[in-house]
Write a structure and sequence with these properties.
The structure is a homodimer.
Chain A (H helix, E strand, L loop, with lengths): L2 H5 L3 H13 L6 H12 L5 H11 L5 H26 L3 E2 L2 E2 L1 H5 L1 H20 L4 H23 L8 H26 L4 H28 L2 H4 L5 H4 L5 H9 L5 H8 L5 H10 L2 H19 L7 H14 L4
Antiparallel strand pairs in A: 1-2
């Protein structure tokens, strides 16, 4: 299944999400309006809002609550990207220059804050304190996770457990906010809410593993940013962890981390590509996708459940 | 009236607010816990949480809602200060080294995000969508206001209207969130909610004018940061605007803004102090305090209303 087919049960409403995202740039301050419109014109694949809508689709599909929630998760995602790019001093994202690279770090920090505020306004429209609390907790998980990632940069002494905790924080927590809130707002029974939450957790972990794989296997054009960015920023991901596990002391990743230099970047990428590391990482990602699919067993068999299956399968084969 | 007397009707509950603020540093990540405890140990005068509690005190004083709200406004305030200091590269705040000066800008950005998240969790505990929406709108007002301040730095072409809009955004909007939410959560009648909102607006404007005066008249020890910081950062405040209005072209503020140098800082401060500018600024601040007091006319005559009067009077004479 391709994304267009997966999104079909909610495509019309996803268009409304996109239009609403664009509408936030219609504000009084001309200058800020320009930056916002720059930010929201390229909104990626929209997986997170799709998760919210698809999770609600099998139940009481009340768009008065589900639409603002879907907008809110995408805005929170965009806000964290703007801050991450400022922190990483990244130059490109989704193929276009980052806010920090054009207008400076100060504007990027404030713009991210403004987007958090907008995300908060939309989540308030759900009128559902339980979901609003989850929203704030998720932001806390993401930012404390980012603090740990930043503190752990260029640190070779990290376990796989550290890695999984980190990607849960930075990615899976928002995926499961998206699914769980969709289920809650559609008044799904509690066991279904719990299952959809776990689906989001597992899909998010798989998504981030594949994202970390693509940082080695993809092209700058497809990624929208330079290949090998994770290593350049000192972030140890599953492929580089496996490389260290398998190729002892004389290892280019260790050299990159010790010298903070990119000199050995091409060598590290080549060693990963020449080994069985990439298929091994895909295998681990697929296991999480399969877990995600099993989480759907108790969900009503509807078009949207089939779409969520399709999405897990789609994530597991990205880049293959 | 001194602060201790003003706070008396809610002092016990303000202590609980302080204890709750301190408790947020009791978290899993040891390192983050340390930074948070550094941040919340020195919490300033606590005017914002006091405003929430005092505004609710005349009505249905339900601490289940008012306490988390008071914690939330203080956390939002702290988060914006952490981001502001990172943006301004400020070294000192409340007499102690800033987060950015100790741990770097990256940590300061993420720490601010974490505090916004915590503020969001507390406001969610009020279970009141109207207040949660106001909370998010206020964060939007503050951050878009900060964007404008940053963009307007070292710009001499600013009107008094620009100044009042700016200080409404950066200070008064949070004061009126504090008062308005206190009134709403205590189920005050709508006219009282509106009056307390306006009280917050007017008190906040006065508070910021006096804060801007103190940047000229106070000492580094009392301010907890260097004197003249606003001019150093290119922020035009009421005293420096009046200096430009009154002393034509050969003006030290213009020189500071044109050269981005601090060479003329002492001269600018001295010129302000030798003129009638400071008393004139106090007069304007007092007018806002008087407006704030008039906003209380329709409020039930209780100990907490008298405290809010006292607070307006306290603000107007700070530094005199």
């Amino acid at each position: 299944m391709e994304l267009s087919e997966i999104y079909a049960p909610v495509q019309q409403d996803l268009n409304r999400v996109r239009d609403t995202l664009r509408s936030i740039s219609r504000i009084e301050y001309t200058w800020l309006a320009e930056q916002l419109s720059y930010l929201v014109k390229e909104t990626g694949k929209g997986i997170r809002p799709a998760l919210t809508l698809l999770s609600g689709r099998s139940y009481n599909y009340n768009l008065d609550y589900l639409l603002p929630m879907a907008v809110s998760v995408e805005l929170m995602h965009t806000a964290t990207l703007v801050h991450d790019d400022a922190i990483d001093k990244a130059l490109k994202r989704r193929g276009q220059a980052t806010i920090n690279s054009i207008w400076g770090n100060e504007i990027a920090v404030l713009m991210g804050d403004y987007l958090f505020a907008k995300a908060g306004e939309f989540v308030a429209e759900t009128q559902t304190p339980r979901v609003i609390k989850l929203f704030s907790q998720t932001l806390g998980t993401i930012s404390s996770g980012e603090i740990n990632q930043f503190r752990g940069a260029f640190n070779l002494n990290q376990t796989r457990e550290d890695y999984f905790r980190r990607i849960y924080g930075k990615t899976a927590s928002l995926f499961s906010l998206a699914t769980q809130s969709g289920a809650i707002l559609a008044q799904a029974p509690e066991p279904a809410v719990a299952s959809l939450k776990e689906y989001g957790d597992n899909l998010g972990i798989a998504f981030q593993i594949v994202d970390d794989i693509l940082d080695f296997t993809s092209t700058e054009e497809a990624l929208g940013k330079p290949v090998g960015s994770d290593l350049t920023q000192g972030t140890l991901t599953l492929p580089s962890m496996l490389l260290i596990e398998r190729y002892g002391d004389d290892n280019p990743v260790k050299k990159i981390f010790r010298t903070h230099s990119q000199k050995n970047l091409a060598e590290a990428i080549q060693m990963v590509l020449n080994s069985s590391i990439i298929p091994d990482c895909y295998k681990i990602a697929s296991e999480y996708c399969e877990k995600a699919c099993r989480n759907l067993d108790s969900i009503l068999d509807t078009a949207s459940r089939r779409a969520l299956y399709g999405l897990a399968e789609y994530v597991s084969r990205q880049g293959t």
